[in-house]
Amino acid sequence: MKQSNIISGLDIGSYNIKAVVMELGEERPKIIGLSNVPSEGMRRGVVVNLEKTIEGITRALNEAQHMAGIDLDSVCVAVGGEHIRNINSKGIVYVSNSSGEITRSDISRAKEAASTLSLPKDRVVIHTIPQEFIVDKQPGIKDPRRMFGQTLEVEVHIITAAETAIRNINRAVEISGFSVEKFVFAPLASAEAVLTEDEKRLGTLLIDFGAGTTDLAVFYDGSIRYSGVVGYGGKAITNDIAIGLRTPLEQAEKLKLEYGCALSSMVKAEDMITVPGMGNRPPKEVSRSVLTAIIEPRVEEIFGLIKNVFYRTQFSKSIGSGIVITGGSAVMSGVAELCEQVFDMPAKIGVPYGFDGFSDTLEDPSNATVFGLSYFLDDEYLDFSGEESILERAIDSLRRIFRRGDR
Fold it and tell me: Which residues, listed in sequence order, are joined to residue 153 by a DSSP beta bridge?
């Protein structure tokens, strides 16, 4: 069966493909279907094997919809990777209504004016996100609808992606038997799942520590101000372990997840672990501190790269809340503690909250992106378009109260 209050999300990572089906109730989104399957056709946000990607997407979505008892036809898809670019821009228009009342149409025209950029032909815009509006030179306005003025200016954060990367992901989803409802930059989805409104307002650096890449997003005064991507993630750590301990990649990943720690001071030298041998070689016993000595430098390097990017922005002194780390590679112990040392700033692991159902999955930071996608099919801060009635405005307000106020 198909229902209008059902939404679905898809997170296609370098290690795993996750799909979720959620039911939008009167209070919070309820998870009714969830799947997690291996990913063999993606690398750093780009399709490198179309057939393997199609197989993974098909399996993930079929398992999720079977669990939910729902037939899906469209899905909201998270995207990330080194091909993502961002820019801040401004646009200004005259208010069209003779009475001076600002409408959704004026907001759409202002956003369109801000989006009139000379982008390369191989780039596509996936988000134009209003940061603030300025009415008759009065700044700091978050929602100018029904206000009065002569001019409307908007400052926006524009996120673009490589056209070929988007087209290949879209093709894989379509061949799997589904359509793409919307593409969403992964850290934006993660932010909706793990950040509070206070954290967005006071200033937060969100680090989405994935397998192929590590994405970052800076939030301040309630809006995203900067986004970027570093081309290393948890997969680099796994490769280091495989080489350093001479063990297969699959076993290196298991060792990382089960015994991995990013900070040597948190590990006792007498703690021993069994490392499977390569090929027919027998397993060997090594100190867990040896594993940590391999992991710590790579994690420190990744955080160092993020720090270099972050401190080149104008928002490095606007982080009043601290750092929130999420993503699949954030599950290792010591990650937040090492991050605090690198940045000299408070850090914590961000896990999804504000959702019902499958309670055992809500403490897993690797689910942040796929869960957060549920906020992007009707989230009005991303899309001011068309006119709305008083009833529609009331429904919108109630929806936002239910979905955000009780989180």
Answer: 92, 134
- 3-state DSSP call for residue 141? strand
Q: With H, G, I as helix, E, B as strand and everything else as coil, classify residue 159.
A: strand
3-state secondary structure at position 14? coil
What mean pLDDT comes out for the span 177-184? 93
Residue 257 burial class via C-beta count within 10 angstroms: exposed 0-12, middle 13-18, buried 19 and up: middle
Q: Is 206 helix (H, G, I), strand (E, B) or coil?
A: strand
Any residues with CB less than 8 A from the CB of 360 and at least 6 apart, and which? none
Contact assessment for residue 215 and residue 228, using Cβ atoms and an 8 Å cutoff: yes
Distances (CA, A) of 8 to 64, 71, 366, 403: 9, 11, 17, 16
- Give the whole-angstrom CA distance, residue 119 versus residue 33: 39
Domain ranges of the chain: 85-161
Rounded to whole angstroms, the Cα distance separating 21 from 219 reads 27
Q: Kind and range of the H or E element at 308?
A: helix 288-310
Q: Check if the beta carbon of residue 352 is closer than 8 Å to that of residue 31.
A: no
Q: What is the CATH number of domain 85-161?
A: 3.30.1490.110
Q: Alpha-carbon distance 37 to 261, whole Å?
A: 25
Concatenate the DSSP letters of all residues of 309-375 into one string: HHTTSTTTT--SSEEEEESGGGGSBTHHHHHHHHHTS-EEE----S-BS-GGGTT-GGGHHHHHGGG
The pTM (predicted TM-score) of the whole model is 0.85
Q: What are phi and psi of 91, to 5 degrees?
A: -145, 145
337-394 confidence digits (pLDDT tens)? 999 999 999 999 999 988 888 877 888 999 999 999 988 865 443 444 333 433 344 4
248 CB-near residues (< 8 Å, 6+ apart): 242, 276, 278
Q: How far apart are CA 101 and CA 9, in angstroms?
A: 37
Q: Give, in order, the Cα–Cα distances in Å from 379 to each of 27, 88, 188, 375, 400.
A: 15, 20, 12, 6, 8
